[in-house]
Amino acid sequence: MFAVGVVALVIVSAAGQRLPNVVLVAGTLVVAAMVWRFGRGLTVGAVVAVAALCQLPGLTQPPITSTDAYRYVWDGRVQLSGHSPYAHVPLDDSLARLRDPVLFPGLSPTDRSGVSGPPRMPTDPAGLAQYSADDPRTRINRPRVPTIYPPVAQAYFTVVAALTPWSAGTLGLQLAAALIAIALTWLLAVQNPRWAALWGWSPIVALEASNAAHVDVLAALVITGAVITTARRPRLAAILLGAAGSVKLLPLLLLPAFRGRRPVVALGSFLASYVPHLLAVGTLVLGFLPGYLSQEGFDDGSSRSAILALLLPPEARQAVAAILAATLAVLAFQRTKREPIAVTCCWLYGAALLIATPTYPWYGIPLIALAALAHRPEWIAVPLASYLAYASFGHDIRQGLIHLAAAGIVATAVTIRHRIAAQSCLTYAPSRANTVRRDETHRPRDLGRTR
Predict the structure, then answer these.
(1) Which of 35, 254, 281, 284 is least enclosed, having the fewest CB within 10 Å?
(2) What is the pLDDT averaged over residues 314-327?
(3) What pLDDT, on a 0 to 100 scale, did the predictor assign at position 303?
(4) Is 121 contained in some domain?
(5) Which of 211, 425, 439, 210 is nearest to 341 (CA)?
(6) What is the DSSP string of 14-37?
(7) Is residue 351 assigned to a domain?
(8) pLDDT tens per residue across span 195-213
């Protein structure tokens, strides 16, 4: 129950904007320390039950960390009406009948917004900033641009929208995200209850699942399913990885960890999810993705790679980031022969976040699940640093130093682990999880659970 109290404190702090990120980081560390100290005798049922209780405080508040959930609600509603969120923006007057006081407190179905027709996106930074600005008449962010969310995420939004009354607003999505977080807790607990608590009892997970309802929680579930099933069902694992990429694009970074033909199957699964939308709206299927990448600095490196920004100008920063990413991909492809795929996916995903340092901290949600699955708790320093950096937005040097500190924590933990392994004469046996033969590395006994 202590973990539930910490989660409740984090939610209250975030809702009241009283040092929310500091309280979140401190709360996460306290819960992790508690799990480490007292978690050896935990059972699957106990871990899942406490995880369910941890999700309750977030349901008592509307989304705190972002307004993304309102866009999710809108996207699902648009698809239920027979239209595409890739081809229509939220302020489009042709969809005025879909407005309600929750999503559009300042715009009724009979009011005119002055926006109509297919999305038109400027290419210059000033025009793009104006085009994607928020509008006080709606809670949906960037209401003049189409969606950026991929097809599997859209299918999820549609299912939840079909089951949620309009008057409930984001509550249906918050409940759905909470259930997903609990389901993932169970999936991890079957492998090892103690490590599953690192995910299920995390204040970060509670904040971003039951409260903010971020779709990254769904991505974490599908990624974990892909890693666990790769031993016995490699083709299914590849399909799941492609589906995870169609929830949020970042999981595609894990392709090098899936050897053989699995990356091809994963890419096929990812691309196949776009086919119905491509047939329906053509090139509009990209939505606001190109504009988003430009705004967030991914196209020229102008506002990304905070660690590299401490030393390099934007043009050099982008080139170095690309070289580092390619090096990591090659290294991951090679190391999957020698270590469990969960470990490879964990450090590959975490290292990618350290290189890119995306603005939004909830992008690190899948990394928490991978850290629990791989038994690599040091990688939780990466999403924790992201929250502190998010609170320091606009202070580039401070952000870079925060991310650098997280990288230092990870490097220190990895070095200590390797020294202990060397002193104990322990080495990784060649893992069959990443060959054409059957692998046993992800059976419960190999993830730390005793029998």
Answers:
(1) 284
(2) 89
(3) 64
(4) yes
(5) 439
(6) HHHTSSHHHHHHHHHHHHHHHHHH
(7) no
(8) 999 999 999 999 999 999 9
Residue 222 to residue 156: CA distance in whole angstroms: 12
Q: How far apart are CA 21 and CA 361, in angstroms?
A: 11
Task: Count Cα atoms within 13 angstroms, Cβ side, for 201.
Answer: 31
- The residues, ordered by sequence, that sit 6+ positions from 121 with a Cβ below 8 Å of its Cβ are 128, 131, 145, 288, 290, 291
DSSP letters spanning 400-444: HHHHHHHHHHHHHHHHHHHHHHHHTT--PPPPGGGSSS---TTSG
* pLDDT tens track for 63-112: 999 999 999 999 999 999 999 999 999 999 999 999 999 999 999 999 99
**Sign of the Cα pseudo-torsion (229, 326, 349, 68, in order):** negative
Helix/strand/coil percent split, the chain, to 5:
65, 0, 35
Rounded distance between C-alpha atoms, residue 241 and residue 325, angstroms: 19
Q: What is the pLDDT of the chain when averaged over all its residues? A: 88
pTM: 0.90
Report which of residues 290 and 92 the model is more confident about.
92
Looking at residue 373, its pLDDT comes to 96
Specify the number of domains making up the chain: 1
Q: What is the mean pLDDT of residues 388-413?
A: 90
Taking the CA atoms of 368, 371, 377 and 383 in sequence, report the sign of the dihedral they define: negative
- Single-letter residue type at 177: A
Q: Transcribe 275-326 into DSSP letters.
A: HHHHHHHGGGGGTTHHHHHHHTTTTT-SS--HHHHTTS-HHHHHHHHHHHHH
Whole-angstrom Cα distance, residue 372 to residue 291?
A: 34
Tell me the mean pLDDT in the region 360-380: 95
Flag whether 80 is in a domain.
yes
Q: What is the DSSP code string of 330-359?
A: HHHHHHTTTS-HHHHHHHHHHHHHHHH--S
Query: How far apart, in whole angstroms, are the C-alpha atoms of residue 423 and residue 436?
Result: 32
CA 1 to each of CA 61, 201, 304, 318: distance values in angstroms, whole numbers, following the listed order: 20, 10, 39, 46
**115 DSSP β-pair partners:** 92
Structural domain boundaries, residue 114? 68-168
Q: Which residues have C-beta within 8 Å of that of residue 178, sequence separation ≥ 6?
A: 52, 55, 58, 59, 209, 210
Task: Tell me the three state secondary structure of residue 267.
Answer: helix
75: in domain? yes
* H or E element in which residue 130 lies: helix 125-131
